[in-house]
Amino acid sequence: MTFSKTRLLRILGTCAVLLLAILAREAIPQNNFIAPIPSVQTPEADTAAIADTLAQKSAGGQNVKNEQNLFEVVRVIDGDTIEVQKNGTVKKVRFIGIDTPETVDPRKSVQCFGKEASAKATELLLGKRVRLETDATQDAYDRYGRLLAYAYLPNGVFFNSYMIEEGYAHEYTYELPYRYQKEFKAAEARAREAGKGLWNPAMCNGKK
């Protein structure tokens, strides 16, 4: 059997194509493993924690700007003591660094400006979600089992300082100096100088 030149060239061309295909396949590794691209962790998860830490440091303390430290005020006992609730648990809180005139102590009569201090605390706190801040210089709880804390109103007002500044409370140090002692003493001096609240000579003139 004879082949024409043209037919022979076609056969040779087809063989060449097949050969090239085989060689190309052999050149590719059979275990076609592609190393996974390492996942890059975005910083969003850490941003909140970092911001929270910075907020705590800027306030000089702990437990600041943290959702876990927001509590609803369910009762105002007097100007320096409240009850808060979170997840069905009620906790009694005694404010650090302030002392308001007594209104509920059965051993004492109602003291001068006590009703006004309690009324102001009720106005500012009752039914609000406040942020509580503890103080590492103080015990977590007092001898009556009350949590010792500072409170911040929803609008950011520092409640403890406000009560002293406006003459509703005396500055109060129990045994050890607390974080904001210097600031609270200065606030009391300003209230006394201005004759605000319980410092008003026509009211209590600073007497309890």
Automatic annotation (TrEMBL):
Taxonomy, superkingdom: Bacteria
Classification via Gene3D superfamilies: 2.40.50.90
One Pfam short name: SNase
Domain (TNase-like): residue spans on this chain: 67-201
Coiled-coil stretches: none
GO MF annotation list: endonuclease activity; hydrolase activity
Segments passing through the bilayer: none
Keywords: Endonuclease, Hydrolase, Nuclease
UniProt name for this protein: TNase-like domain-containing protein
Species of the source: Candidatus Liptonbacteria bacterium RIFCSPLOWO2_01_FULL_53_13
Upper taxonomic lineage: Bacteria, Candidatus Liptoniibacteriota
